[in-house]
Automatic annotation (TrEMBL):
Family: Belongs to the HIBADH-related family.
Any Pfam family matching the protein: NAD_binding_2
Naturally occurring in which organism (per UniProt): Nonomuraea soli
Domain of life: Bacteria
Protein keywords: Oxidoreductase
Protein name: 3-hydroxyisobutyrate dehydrogenase-like beta-hydroxyacid dehydrogenase
Keyword Calcium: no
Organism taxonomic ancestry: Bacteria, Bacillati, Actinomycetota, Actinomycetes, Streptosporangiales
ATP-binding is among the record's keywords: no
């Protein structure tokens, strides 16, 4: 299949390389033309302009700085008959507005999010999320599968890929920040971070195993505590904050989590499951009494 890749940062280079390895006729473009040279050596064609890249292929894949840059690059061009797959990071609203813009230019449009580092592209580790018309995804799924082990279509709403992306990043940062805070406490006590990591890793795996049960409670709106109540968790959070202060470690992270639990207790929900804290997240600060 003929595929054009616009944007050759580290990720864009990895995407184009994956298409080449899979045997697709690949055209590439980047503002800094020299970034195309390694791909040309692998068999790619370097386009002299964005217009040339778009004209070369039915499937156009973008991986640029942001949505504004994507639209700036494509705005002057005729896109009728093209399928545009935008793998640029952004927000759900940006994805939806870009989809409307693409439709006005005659393009079929999929929004996407790459849940992998460049080195993982084209391996089983890579997960690429797509949202938009199912028939557009189905038509190009075989080509897009070159990018990794899982190509998942999330639904017709163009904003879903971006929304999943930021939600999953939130999970990632929460895990990493929890580890870093714990490592700060233990290294303050003379323990090497590697020793902590050997226990933290399996603990993260255990907690991940709880997620399907918590998700079921959220979907069913049944927060019966089967392991520990919010009150029990809150008592342990007090210990974590106190230990942080004693060791001279910033207690802000556990303190913010404790504040969420305290709000739930104040609302009379101390006997419920930890999953019930979702209702605290669902209530914006300005809407709290």
């Amino acid at each position: 299949m003929q595929i054009s890749v616009i944007g050759l940062g580290l990720m864009g280079q990895a995407l184009a390389g994956a298409f080449l390895t899979a045997g697709h006729e690949t055209t590439v473009w980047n503002r800094t033309a020299s970034k195309a040279e390694p791909l040309v050596a692998q068999g790619a064609k370097a386009a002299g302009s964005v217009a040339e890249a778009v004209a070369a292929s039915e499937l156009v894949v973008l991986c640029v700085t942001d949505y504004a840059a994507a639209r700036e690059l494509l705005d002057p061009l005729e896109l009728t008959g093209r399928a545009v797959v935008n793998l640029t990071s952004g927000t759900a609203e940006q994805a939806r507005s870009t989809a409307e813009w693409a439709a006005s230019r005659g393009a079929a449009y999929l929004d996407g999010a790459i849940m992998a580092i460049p080195q993982a592209i084209a391996t089983d580790e890579a997960v690429v999320l797509y949202s938009g018309p199912g028939e557009v995804f189905d038509r190009h799924q075989a080509a897009l599968s070159a990018l990794g082990g899982q190509s998942l279509h999330l639904g017709e709403d163009h904003g879903l890929a971006s929304l999943y992306d930021v939600a999953l990043l939130g999970v990632m940062w929460s895990v990493l920040n929890g580890f870093l805070h714990g490592a700060a406490m233990l290294t303050a006590a003379g323990v090497e971070a590697s020793a902590f990591a050997s226990l933290a890793g399996p603990t993260i795996g255990t907690v991940a195993g709880w997620l399907p049960g918590y998700a079921e409670q959220i979907d069913k709106k049944d927060f019966t505590a089967t392991d520990a109540t919010i009150a029990t968790h809150l008592a342990a959070m007090d210990h974590l904050v106190e230990e942080s202060e004693v060791l001279g470690v910033d207690p802000g992270l556990p303190g913010s989590v404790r504040e969420i639990a305290r709000r739930a207790v104040a609302a009379g929900r101390e006997g419920e499951s930890y999953a019930a804290l979702i209702d605290q997240f669902r209530t914006p600060s300005g809407a709290r009494s």
